[in-house]
Design goal:
- The structure is a homodimer.
- Chain A is an alpha+beta fold.
- Chain A folds into 2 domains: 17-44 and 79-335, BirA Bifunctional Protein, domain 2; 356-440, Anticodon-binding domain (Rossmann fold), CATH 3.40.50.800.
- Chain A is 41% helix and 20% strand.
- Chain A has helices at 17-36, 50-54, 59-64, 83-93, 136-154, 167-176, 183-190, 193-209, 213-221, 228-239, 243-258, 322-335, 366-378, 392-402, 431-440, and strands at 40-41, 47-49, 67-69, 75-78, 101-110, 122-131, 160-166, 264-266, 280-286, 296-301, 315-321, 356-358, 383-385, 406-411, 414-419, 424-429.
- The relative contact order of chain A is 0.10.
């Protein structure tokens, strides 16, 4: 029988260890950061009733969804984001939870869209939300978590700027132009600014709102130059004072109190295309690679559970696009000639997966080798056991290929430790001394 | 519009924070253990070509698989285990990897089977395998990892016994009865011993192998009483010496060298139903709850990639069924009256998700509260900020509900720390002193 060609579906990927180690390292940092704010994890099924996930049926979304009939004749679909399952989750479990509920959810989602650079049909989202509070304090906590967590992930590689806006402010401005009833359509077009440019958006806006309106709207959304305070003044002048400007004032105060103002820009061109946002909205950009688009976006939505429950529930949250962020950090690391020093800090560099290996000296010796390795593992040294007895030089090459910095060679009652990078041996060690040496380098 | 009833599909589950924290804690322990042996993580797509996953088409498996036609007309399926995707992965990537390749993969799989107690349609497997070595050293490393990792997970709750056998030995015994060509069928029936009992299996065996053969086979597989060495002697007497008995001898030596013999039992009734095993096979049972079945099973398979490549590749590996193990540990914890002391050690007890919370004293104060919380976070204290100003007693109740042991109350230039369990305040602290107190208790 001819072999089946081994391949994955278009838009899907295998993660080899070098990439998966980076990925898991990122997730670990994200989780640690979320947990430090007292957020707790949840999980929901990958597969749900299509009715639950698609609700009223959003045109564009529906085309992208993996939807099928299961063995029991049920109309089911793979989740395409983590927000809709979370809305269902809150409607189902709110009585079991303490509000305000602060949760995160890191999981894969699937969309059968066209696969482009940085866009996959299977990708990971890291959502974090506060449900049950309509306060500026909740809005700010999400913003602070974005800035803190992205800062941890990007480190020295890039600064992060979070551009925020308030939907209400823009809607009031449209109202002043007599365009309130067209706000959803207009918001969707403005959201395309980054993709199709100013002229393209002007044309689309004039189709909807009439000649002249396009330029006025574009003029308004260009007010976001200069600092937060000045921009807020200009926007308030354009749309008048309201609940939204007061909310933005309050956020500005919190930024000042926490000394985080430098990370935030008030930008009236940020609208987010999705209809469900009702308050603040935001996107995040890497200062060194703005062209890759937003790596973490979100906002306030006040009708989260309305599809599944008559009880209203406020929410505010954001989502890190892990795949796009990983691609961006890899690109930045490649640009700066990221080094392969095994320190685990770089992106193009190999992350050290193992600290030491016990050499295989003879067949039948593996029990003793494992007992020795266990003594190192107990001391916090990740220690592999080589399985096939070979010349020591070959085992050193194997260690080098695998990125293992130390090889442990039992010699009678003592140990010799080989430093692979320096090509040096240290002889006559006991386990304690060898573990200390391996832990240090 | 009437709300859509919020519900999940039968056999699928939401994980609320209390369960998800336990689950993630288990995965963290498992990963740490695997990594300490120098194993590295990989990931593969949830969705693959049906042809890749189903290959020759296994009757029972095929019925359980979620299979459908995607938007591009492709015949696709959700993975039903992590072994088949791994075989495809190895055939596709072996040139990019250093052999022997030691990898783990912790991920969800989907099977549309009947949902029973402890059986779900979506569940998590934790696979670990060594590919590219046919040595007893590799067999033993997997066994040692099983015993070490399950030991870490079960802790005081239960001992773990790993029951192992060798497929070759049983096949040679069948050969001596003239039943070699029926070995696959016979192995499948013997695997049902735990489910349908001795009489049921005897009847099935006699249908296949003729009158009398059933009793002989059952006699052979009952030889596994007493210690490893004695059982191996009896089995060798029944089937003669061979490569398989020598392999078991070697493993016995390794157990002795590592002092782990007490965890392993040689049990000729362990056969594993799956056809692809060719050498050692094993299952693991909790001493305190054997009825729940095997929580970690596996074995040696020597034709891993044969569907996708003409190059043969040896492998040996095992898989922890996370859901079943979690259910078992929860049951054991409930039996022993697991306490809710917040220490994170118990299963029925609540895992502490957050160490402290800053009280909300007045509206508009949230920036200062976040700045204070950041000072605690920097010192390793997970610190939530309460968002809604309420009476302090109500905030203490909120902390208690959420399992947060300390509440931080700013009082002018100093801090008061409320111990929720003891209902005691300590006043006049600076951040350093308050963080030290919160870290201690």
């Amino acid at each position: 029988m001819a072999p089946i060609e081994p391949r994955v579906l278009k838009g899907f990927r295998d993660f080899l260890p070098a990439q998966e180690l980076i990925r898991r390292g990122m997730i670990e940092k994200i989780e640690k950061s979320f947990r430090s704010f007292g957020f707790v994890p949840i999980d929901t099924p990958a597969l749900e009733y299509a009715e639950i996930l698609l609700g009223k049926g959003g045109g564009e979304t529906e085309k992208q969804v993996y939807r099928f009939t299961d063995q029991g004749g049920r109309d089911v679909a793979l989740r395409f984001d983590l927000t809709v399952p979370f809305a269902r989750f809150m409607a189902e479990h709110r009585r079991e939870l303490v509000l305000p509920f602060k949760r995160y959810h890191i999981a894969k989602v699937w969309r059968g869209e066209n696969a482009q650079r940085g866009r996959y049909r299977e990708f990971t989202q890291c959502d974090f939300d506060i449900v049950g509070s309509d306060s500026a304090a909740a809005d700010f906590e999400i913003l602070l978590m974005m800035s803190t967590t992205l800062g941890l992930l990007c480190g020295e590689a890039s600064g992060v700027t979070i551009r925020l806006n308030h939907r209400g402010l823009f809607n009031r401005f449209l109202e002043s132009l007599g365009l309130k009833d067209k706000s959803v359509q207009i918001l969707r077009q403005v959201d395309k600014l980054g993709k199709i440019g100013r002229d393209g958006v002007r044309n689309l806006l004039e189709d909807i709102a009439g000649a002249g309106a396009g330029e006025k709207i574009l003029g308004y959304i260009s007010l976001g130059e200069g600092d937060f305070e000045k921009t807020l003044e200009k926007l308030t002048a354009a749309a008048g004072e309201g609940e939204d400007t007061r909310r933005l004032e309050e956020l500005k105060g919190y930024m000042k109190d926490t000394g985080t103002g430098g990370s935030f820009v008030l930008d009236p061109s940020i609208t987010r295309g999705l209809d469900y946002y009702t308050g603040v909205v935001y996107e995040s950009f890497l200062d060194e690679l703005p062209g890759i688009g937003s790596v973490c976006s979100g906002g306030r939505y006040d009708r989260l559970t309305e599809l599944y429950s008559k009880e209203p529930l406020w929410g505010v949250g954001s989502s890190i696009g892990l795949d796009r962020l990983q691609a961006a950090l890899e690109e930045l690391s490649a640009r700066s000639g990221g080094c392969s020093d095994g320190s685990g800090g770089g992106f193009s560099g190999r992350i050290r997966c193992c600290d030491a290996a016990v050499a295989a000296l003879e067949t039948g010796n593996s029990g003793k080798a494992q007992a020795l390795a266990e003594a190192f593992r107990r001391r916090g040294i990740r220690c592999e056991v080589f399985l096939e007895p070979k010349k020591l030089t070959q085992q050193f090459i194997l260690a080098e290929k695998k990125g293992i910095p130390w090889v442990i060679i039992p010699e009678g009652e003592t140990l010799t430790l080989r430093n692979i990078a320096a090509r040096e041996n240290t002889e006559g060690l006991d386990v304690e001394a060898a573990a200390a040496l391996a832990a240090g380098g």
